[in-house]
Every structure is written in C-alpha cells, then in structure tokens.
Amino acid sequence: MTSLFSSLAHNLRGQLIARIVSFAINMYLLRRIDNDVLGLVNVRLTLLYSSILFLTREPLRKAEIIRGSLPKFINLLWLSPIISSMLSVICVYLWCTFSSTSEDVSWNVLLSFPISAIIESIAEPFSVISLRLESTSGSLGQHFAIGQGMLICVKRIFVLAGLFIFPEMYHLDIFAYSQYFGAIAYLLFNFIAFYFYIRNKSIPELEKFTSFSDFLPKASEGIDRDSMKAVFTMFSHSILKQLLTDGSAYVMTFTELLSLKHQAVYDAVERVGSIIVRTILSPIDENCNAYFSNTIRKESSVFSKNTDNHDDLVENLSTILHVVGVIGFVACVFGVPYSSTAISLYGGKLLSDNGGALLLSLYSGYILVTAINGITEGFAMASMDNYQIYSHGKFLFVTSALHLFINYVLCVYMNSAGFIVANIINMTVRIIYNWKTIRQYLGDRAPSFTTVLPTFSTAMFLGASLFATSFSYLIFATTPGLSHNLSHIAIGAVCLVILAQHTIQHDPVFAAIIDSLAKKHRE
C-alpha cells in the first residue's frame, strides 16, 4: 500500500498547482476572449489534439509490453512519434472533410494542434518509463507529475502573456503558438531531466540504463512481436474507448446541434466540473493503471522487483475503490448546492444565463461514476487474457455506437445536458462490465462492490452536509450580493473541513493511508 499511495501523493502534488493556475487563467479567458473562439479551440481543435495523443499514449501505457528485454521495450516505445504522425494525417483529413467549421480555421492554426501532439509524442517514451519503473522512492513519479503539470500550465500562461504582449494578434494564432511552445518545453524538460538522471545516477530505478543512449532506439535489437501485437490490440480498444470518452465532443464537432457559443458554455462547465477529475482522479488513474499492469504481469523479469504480492493487489484494489468512491460522493453532495455559485464565479453571465448551473449539477453525478470506472477499467484491462480482450473489443464496439447515438438523441431533446446524461449511462454500463471481469479474475477473493460506499458515520456526515449546504443555498445563494455568496461558501467550507476531519480519523481506510504515508515521511 505504501508504494502505491506514495507515488499517488507525488503525482497529486505535482499536478495540483498546475491545475489551479490553469483554472484561474481559464476564468480570465472566459471574460476576455470571444465565445466562438473558445468553443472552436476548447472543443473542436482540442478534440483533434487529444484524439491523436490519446490513441498514441493509451496503448503504450496500458498494453502488456514488458516482456524481459529492455532494449526491445525501448524500441517499442519509440514507435510513438510514428504512430502520432500517421494519426495526425488521418485525423486532419477527417477534420477538414467532416467538421462543420473547418473552413473557419486557417492551416496555421489547424496544424499547430497535431504538430504539437507529434512533438509531445517524442517525449512519450520517457513518460512510459516513468510510469512503468515507478517504485518506492517516488523519484520517477515526481518527474512524471512535474512534466504533466508543466504541460498543462505552460500553454495557458503563454496564452495569457500573449494577450498582454500582443494585444492586436488574432486570438486563434495565440492559441496556435501556445501549442508549439508548450510541446517544445515539455520535450526539452524530459530529455534534459533524463540526461541528468543518468549522468548523476540519482534515480535507483534507472540503474539498468548505463548511458543516455540506452533510452534511444537500437535497430539491431528489434521489437518483441508479442508486445507489438499487444499494442495493436490495445490500439483498437483505444479507438473505441476514445469514442466513448469524448462522444459528446465528436457530436458537437461533426454536427451543428449546438452553436459555438453553447459549445463554449458546455466546455467551460466541464472544466469546472472536471477540476476534481483532472486534479485528483486522473493522477490516481495513471498510477493505478501502471501499478495494476506491473503487479499482474509478474512474468516480467526486468520489472519484477516493482511488483507486490497478490494479497497486496487485492487490498490495494479495495482501498483505492473506497477512496475514489468517497471522493465521488463528496463531489455529489457539495456539487449540487454550489453549482450556481461556482458557475457565477468562474464564467459570469455567459455561463449563468445559459444553463451552466444545471449542467454542473448533473456533472456532479458524473464525477462519481467516472471515478469508479477509472479504477475498475484499469484493473480489468490489466487482468484480461487474449480471449477476454477480444470480447472486450466487441463490447466497446457496440457500446461506442450506442453511446454516439444516445448523445445525438439526448442532445436533440435536452441540449447539452443530454451529453452529461449520456456519459453517466455510458460509465455505468462500463462499470458493470469491468466488475464482472474483476470477479472472474479474483474469484471469491474479489472485494465487495459496496467497498466504494462511505462508512455509516461518514454517510451521516455527508447527509448533514447536504442538508446544511442546501439550506444555505436557499438562504444566501438565491440572493444577489458578494456577502451572501461568501456566507454560502463559508458554510460549505466549514462542512467540508468537518467532514474531512471525521473521515480521516474514523474511516479505517483513510486512517491507514494517512498512517502509512506519515511513517514513510518520518523514514
């Protein structure tokens, strides 16, 4: 437990500041930049960029590619720039052919997003190494967290600086240059950092690498065929998973159901709602996926020292499910009564006058199911054999088609709120499938699904917090004025602190985590 949660702590700390800075800058951009530009950049162009990166990263980070030969493993990782380049050509063609606003974007702006994805993919081998070789020292975990945080933060800071330094520059061009700047900074950070790690021999997990050239591909070593098959199998899964994850963005990009203004509203609400997902849950998913993959694939002789025994695997699965479950319930309880306040503070009238509060309230429920799905899917994918992976592919194919259809239908009848409802349905179905796979793998030793629920006393505190914050909403939040908003926020803050203190002290799972981290810190 200690090694897993120690790496989680490093990842969370590394990305927290970057997320806060990015969040604050986005608040300013919503008030400064035209709504149509934000809708175009944050939904349509970002979808192009994220699709390329996701399909490049996901197979290499989650497939069973560790099979004993270190040089072959490194060679396989260096396929990432090739994969991203091929994907960029395909995705740009599809975007230009089918996107409803492709004629509104210059080639300079459009190409900046796939090119930045290619640049970032050159640094992907170092990210995969950081995740796969992460151990109790936490050094590589810190490197990965700092790199991801820097990538998030640098682009937004560049956009903010560009608005002040070049006030006459077209806003889309500023976003385009920020993509290049952030990607190059991320690439240099990884190359320079790993060069010094090897020169100073400061990272114990890298002891098998004698020089920086060991991180580079060697044609004479070739690539393990089984690992290559695993990557391509995971790649097909990743395509379907991407459709499931960003189905709403694809519907918005390739249809005209929502105007660019309403797309900007939806994206802004999603950014507010996903602050917990991006700041807390995403780092947890990243570390847990690597941990499950390393632990279950014990046949790897290269990385066998990084794996725990089977008992720890089951215990950590149960523990992390409980942790993300409680986080999800807390998000639901506080998300509903504070949605209107958060929307007003973050986006002003743009979000308040366009149904932002309703969207954020719905998103609170989505946080709970996506938190559980991230962990169950990571474990399920790591435990699948070839037949199960094939069956999972068929499941993803069917559910992705249904998900796109449900997104379209619900958007017609519910506008952008339909996207969130469709996502909740999608995540719930995936959780059921993943849990079935986990039970098949662990058998009688599988933890009860009720482990995601808070303890009885914590549930009582959650209920009391919901009552207090809802009453506060009726008294203060419905009345305009800064003092009323501050009073409403203060009541929520007090409830959250009391709830957190009780959970840490009286929830056995959280108490054990805090105790283990405290012991490691003292050591």
From TrEMBL:
<dbReference type="GO" id="GO:0005789">
    <property type="term" value="C:endoplasmic reticulum membrane"/>
</dbReference>
<feature type="transmembrane region" description="Helical">
    <location>
        <begin position="37"/>
        <end position="55"/>
    </location>
</feature>
<dbReference type="InterPro" id="IPR007594">
    <property type="entry name" value="RFT1"/>
</dbReference>
<comment type="function">
    <text>Intramembrane glycolipid transporter that operates in the biosynthetic pathway of dolichol-linked oligosaccharides, the glycan precursors employed in protein asparagine (N)-glycosylation. The sequential addition of sugars to dolichol pyrophosphate produces dolichol-linked oligosaccharides containing fourteen sugars, including two GlcNAcs, nine mannoses and three glucoses. Once assembled, the oligosaccharide is transferred from the lipid to nascent proteins by oligosaccharyltransferases.</text>
</comment>
<feature type="transmembrane region" description="Helical">
    <location>
        <begin position="482"/>
        <end position="500"/>
    </location>
</feature>
<keyword id="KW-1133">Transmembrane helix</keyword>
<feature type="transmembrane region" description="Helical">
    <location>
        <begin position="143"/>
        <end position="166"/>
    </location>
</feature>
<feature type="transmembrane region" description="Helical">
    <location>
        <begin position="178"/>
        <end position="198"/>
    </location>
</feature>
<feature type="transmembrane region" description="Helical">
    <location>
        <begin position="76"/>
        <end position="95"/>
    </location>
</feature>
<feature type="transmembrane region" description="Helical">
    <location>
        <begin position="412"/>
        <end position="433"/>
    </location>
</feature>
<comment type="similarity">
    <text>Belongs to the RFT1 family.</text>
</comment>
<feature type="transmembrane region" description="Helical">
    <location>
        <begin position="313"/>
        <end position="336"/>
    </location>
</feature>
<feature type="transmembrane region" description="Helical">
    <location>
        <begin position="356"/>
        <end position="375"/>
    </location>
</feature>
<dbReference type="GO" id="GO:0006488">
    <property type="term" value="P:dolichol-linked oligosaccharide biosynthetic process"/>
</dbReference>
<feature type="transmembrane region" description="Helical">
    <location>
        <begin position="453"/>
        <end position="476"/>
    </location>
</feature>
<dbReference type="Pfam" id="PF04506">
    <property type="entry name" value="Rft-1"/>
</dbReference>
<keyword id="KW-0256">Endoplasmic reticulum</keyword>
<feature type="transmembrane region" description="Helical">
    <location>
        <begin position="107"/>
        <end position="131"/>
    </location>
</feature>
<keyword id="KW-0812">Transmembrane</keyword>
<comment type="pathway">
    <text>Protein modification; protein glycosylation.</text>
</comment>
<protein>
    <recommendedName>
        <fullName>Protein RFT1 homolog</fullName>
    </recommendedName>
</protein>
<keyword id="KW-0472">Membrane</keyword>
